[in-house]
Fold this sequence. Notes:
By secondary structure, the protein is α/β, with parallel strands linked by helices. Helix content is 34%, strand content 20%. The protein is built from 10 helices and 9 strands. 21% of the residues are buried. The C terminus is likely disordered.
Amino acid sequence: MSADSGVFALVNGLRDPRDPRGRQYPLGSVLLIALCAIACRFDSFRAMGQWAAVAPPATLERLGLRRCGAFALVKAPSADTIRRVVNAVLPGGLEQLLRVFQDKASVVAVDGKCLRGSRDAAGQAVMVLGAMLQDGTLVAQQKVADKGSEITGFAALLAALELEDAVVVADALHTQREHARVLVEEFSAHYAFPVKRNQMELWKACRKVPWERVRATFRSTARAHGRIDTRVVPQLELVGAWAAGP
C-alpha cells in the first residue's frame, strides 16, 4: 500500500492533534488498524488492540508500521493507544474519509447512539450521532457531548454528504425549523420528521390537516423485536391556505 495514494493518503491527510514529541505511531497507521479491526468485527478498543497484537507483521507493515529493534520486529499499538488516538481525532475527520467513496444518497437516516464498550470508570459513555443509508451503510458519524448536543451537530454531520433530492429522516428530537431550513435551502434535500405533542402548536396544526381526504401512498409490514410493525405513510400536497401553514 502506497502512503501517497488511496485510503492511506486520506487518513494521513487528517490533522493530527497529538503532541509531536509523544508520537510513536503514525496517525494513519493507528486509524487504519482501527478500521481493519472493526471490519473484522473487533468493535471495542480492547478488541482492536487484540486484533493488532495478533496481526501478521506483513499486514502491519502494509498499514504503515515499521520494523525496529535488533530483531526487526513490528510493534503494534496497544488498546489504550488506539483509544487515545481515535478519541483525539477531531469530530468530522474520520467522516470525511468514509464519505469520499460514497455515491449520491437517496434516503439518509440520522440517529444518535451510545457507543458500545465506551463506558469509562465513572459510568460515562461516548455518544455519537450517525447518518446511515437504506442498506445499513454508515456514511457519517461524529462524537457529541450528550443527547441534547445531537441538535447542534445535525447540520455539521450532513454537510459533506451529497444530499440533493435526498430524503433525510430522523426522530422527533430533530423536528426543528432550523434543521428543515438547512436541508431545503442549503442542501436541496427533503425531510421526514415526526411530530409529537411536545411541540404543541405544530401538533395542533397537523391535526387540522384534512387527513380523511388523504390516500395512503406507502405501506410496509415488518417483524422485529417480537412484534409486527405496520407503517403507513400518507402524502398530502399542500396548496392554498394549507401551504401557508404555521
